[in-house]
Amino acid sequence: MPASPRPQPQSVADLFWSFTRLALQGFGGVLAIVQHEMVEKKQWLTREEFIEDWAVAQILPGPNVVNLSLMIGDRYFGLRGALAALAGMLTFPLLIVLALAAIFAGISDSGGVAGALRGMGAVAAGLIAATGLKLAGALQKNVMGTLLCWLLAALTFIAIAVLRVPLVWVLLTVGGAACIWAYRQLGRYRVLGGDS
Fold it and tell me: 77: number of CA atoms within 13 Å, CB side?
């Protein structure tokens, strides 16, 4: 019995509306929402694909989720898909932000508003941490090995959160070392695979 085809967007319009719903659900931080929608609900990406694509999206200039939407749109429909996904991510949130900016200008001095914004920041941080833990299972298949991945994550956290090292230096040193090690490991697997 042939394997069922992998789920994917049915059309450019499906891509647009899917990313519009994503953008509207994840207002202020979308990592948890994107992972749930793309991997668990729609199954357009596997966990491993999501982690790889998210890693690339993070190091490219611009907002992570916008970069990811461009990559997914391009994967399924080329340039048309990339533009449709981008439009879906930006159109309605832009209109909402403009409306909120007009409203916020009148109430920005309120202590209640400042407290609410701090509370939302804590919730967003919790969502990001929960998503990271949910995706940790995919590290078992990582070419660098689970232990090294956790060590790199801890080193990155300490460098940024504790030592306050600028992100660019952490990316260049820790990220660069991780890329070199992964490249070396991939080469080793190719040699071993070629011998068998």
Answer: 19
| Chain CA centroid to CA 129, Å | 13
What pTM, to 2 d.p., does this model score? 0.58
Highest average pLDDT, of 94-103, 116-125, 134-143, comes from 94-103
Helix ranges restricted to H, the chain: 12-25, 31-35, 47-59, 64-107, 111-135, 146-157, 167-170, 176-195
Q: What is the pLDDT of residues 61-86, one digit of tens each?
A: 888 888 999 999 999 999 999 999 99
Calculate the average pLDDT of the chain. Answer: 83
Least Cα distance to 56 among 80, 41, 72, 77 occurs for 72
At 18, give phi and psi (nearest 5°): -65, -45
CB-count exposure of residue 22 (10 Å: 0-12, 13-18, 19+): buried
Domain spans in the chain, listed from the N-terminal domain onward:
1-137, 142-196
Q: For residues 117 and 109, what is the distance between their CA atoms, to the nearest angstrom?
A: 12
Asked if 106 and 144 touch (Cβ cutoff 8 Å), the reply is: no
Residue 195 confidence (pLDDT): 46
Residue 122 Ramachandran class (φ > 0 left, ψ -120 to 50 alpha, else beta): alpha
